[in-house]
Amino acid sequence: MIRKKRTEILIKGSEEVSTKLAQEILQAYDVKTIEASKNSLVMVKVRESAQRSLFYLGEVLITECKVMINGFLGIGMVKGHEPSLAYNLAIVDAAYNGDLPETKAWTKALLLEELHINENYEALKRQVLKTKVNFDTMDVQ
């Protein structure tokens, strides 16, 4: 599973999943914290559609963390103030970068979590669509 998809699942999904995966690594390996979870501001770059020019929309608060496992660096970044999630993301990233044996079994858990995310999204979408007004059928006088 590619890094972008894996990270997206861990961020959008239940925090229990990232915690469970990180705990699995913490119990088996020596995890060195290179940079503890801290807040930062990051500029948001956007491409304007008409002239295709880049500009900075503003800043967003993120939490970032860096860890090392067996000489492999892991980085965790998440929008908002989420220190434990950033730490868990960094551990999972380092585990994948180090190709640790535990990561082989994680694909199934991540795909299952992606399924839950999609189900929750569809349920929310159905709820929102119930409130949609069809102006074509409204009787206007």
Radius of gyration (CA) equals 20 Å
DSSP strand tally: 3
Figure out the total of helices: 4
Kindly estimate the percentage of residues that lie in beta strands according to DSSP. 25-35%
Count of individual domains: 1
Mean pLDDT: 92
Which class of secondary structure composition applies to the elements?
alpha+beta
Q: Descriptors for this entry?
A:
141 residues; three-stranded antiparallel sheet; 4 helices; extended
Explain what this protein looks like in three dimensions.
It is a single chain. A three-stranded antiparallel β-sheet has the order 1-2-3. Helix content is 45%, strand content 29%. Helix 1 crosses helix 4 and helix 2 packs across helix 3. It has one domain. The N and C termini lie far apart (57 Å). A hairpin with a 6-residue loop joins strand 1 and strand 2. It has four helices and three strands, in the order H-H-E-E-E-H-H. The protein is an alpha+beta fold and 141 residues long.
Which helices and strands, and how do they pair?
Blueprint: H1 3-12, H2 15-28, E1 31-47, E2 54-69, E3 72-79, H3 83-97, H4 106-130
Antiparallel strand pairs: 1-2, 2-3
Helix pairs in contact: 1-4, 2-3
Give a concise summary:
The chain has 141 residues and is of the alpha+beta class. Helix content is 45%, strand content 29%. The protein has helices at residues 3-12, 15-28, 83-97, 106-130, and strands spanning 31-47, 54-69, 72-79.
